[in-house]
Amino acid sequence: MAQRKNAKSSGNSSSSGSGSGSTSAGSSGGSSSPGPRRETKHGGHKNGRKGGLSGTSFFTWFMVIALLGVWTSVAVVWFDLVDYEEVLAKAKDFRYNLSEVLQGKLGIYDADGDGDFDVDDAKVLLGLKERSTSEPAVPPEEAEPHTEPEEQVPVEADSSEPVVEDERLHHDTDDVTYQVYEEQAVYEPPENEGIEITEVTAPPEDNPVEDSQVIVEEVSVFPVEEQQEVPPETNRKIDDPEQKAKVKKRKPKLLNKFDKTIKAELDAAEKLRKRGKIEEAVNAFKELVRKYPQSPRARYGKAQCEDDLAEKRRSNEVLRGAIETYQEVASLPDVPADLLKLSLKRRSDRQQFLGHMRGSLLTLQRLVQLFPNDTSLKNDLGVGYLLIGDNDNAKKVYEEVLSVTPNDGFAKVHYGFILKAQNKIAESIPYLKEGIESGDPGTDDGRFYFHLGDAMQRVGNKEAYKWYELGHKRGHFASVWQRSLYNVNGLKAQPWWTPKETGYTELVKSLERNWKLIRDEGLAVMDKAKGLFLPEDENLRERGDWSQFTLWQQGRRNENACKGAPKTCTLLEKFPETTGCRRGQIKYSIMHPGTHVWPHTGPTNCRLRMHLGLVIPKEGCKIRCANETKTWEEGKVLIFDDSFEHEVWQDASSFRLIFIVDVWHPELTPQQRRSLPAI
Asked: pTM score, two decimals?
């Protein structure tokens, strides 16, 4: 221990000096030494001057204090009296850019070669640990870029991908959106997939949904009364020591031998990117790529900067360039395995973002070929197949994963999801249940609680509401009753509404005044027997016959359908709150005797649903929303929030015909109505 030895040497030197002085005094004057000490103690000198400590005593006290400081430092490190990791974690929560501070201020004390100053470095400096002789380390900003949760690589606060205000713009595989219309088990891309963002300078054309708008939607709704983020259970589990040991892995190695020789230049360019100077960073990395065309790390930095710039400018063109550059990284020789994996994973993610699902699938297939033993990549591949609707191949992938790692929670919940989509309801339950219970990253997702509870309800398992309650407690559902997954926080939530509460009284009056006209056009379409009424295909029926004839879908008018009900369509054009509701439909709904619709919830809290009674049997037809049941009346409008659980029975002796009109939730702002993507 370098410092410990110095301290001992200094202490011995002081003692020997004091001893020799004492011996010398003893030989010359015997007991003369104690006298002056007593005088000093009383503050007196021979010349009558007041005095403090003598030079020798001052030096002794100085050394005592110095030794105490050194040994205190040793004790702090040796006995781990200070939890440095906790301190850093708290600092990251306050968004301090500690990595740059440590790099600039304490980097010179990096003794163990890992690129930063930490407890291990302190132990090396104090002689408690041997100095590392390993190869030069990767600095924190290089060693810990943004990684997907399956990668399970610790990520520093300043080394992730750029923070995005609109959280929907980044979708890790843990966050893949299972778009659920009602509760049909269909695995689709996130809501913004396939909706390309436009250049800021380019005016919107045909697409009514612009991703460049700020979306205030949350995929998982939180309780309205709390209005605060509820951390996912997976995050809470990772706080446990056992989970930490499971998740924490080594830092990725991103530099090959050549890149280590230009590390200083790479660091300088990377710091520009970390500080948000994206344009400067792009130019810096472009210059490095020009100078060192075979440098994988320089090209990866260029790709990251282009990725950041695309986000900043909301530009698809720039993002396509980033996707190409990520591919270039993977094509270079001597690419470190970790860098290759990160590049291709990010490429796949960005391809999915642009809606290039098949291109993303090819990238994922290559990743699995390169890293056949990485089950997390196989899990990603399964997601890739699901996103293109290839459930059969996805099922094979997850069966392969579970044959190797039978307790893989991510694979279990996805396998259970597929089984439920195949209507193997009872068989899906243990996979969904055990997958959620595993706490593995990607399993604490509202969609899995949604489908597990739904499956349990269908087999008569009373534990369904226990899982809905747990989903609510973990922040996935607004309540046990309100279980929609695409939500805007803070909207008024109640199962049943009055026309006055909605503010859409003119629309309601118009519907009720013209109900016979609407009914007659619906009956005429039914009589044509041209198959315009299509069977409900969302697997919501336990039994029976239920069909629909749609005039508007996602805010778009169906011109062919409106030819069959022209007066009704003309009437509705006056009310943009319904014709412009991109999260709803306008449609006729016919239900025949003997039909039962399972308890289910709609996909979003952004709409309300109006039911206008057209042909209603006197008895046997009813609808329950939450814990209140009502019946329809001809010519009257019922209004409910279909994000709450609702259920329908048709036990009459003749058909029931109603007209369904969805409207925006009245508390949504005009900006939200323009910017929220369609469902």
From this structure: 0.65
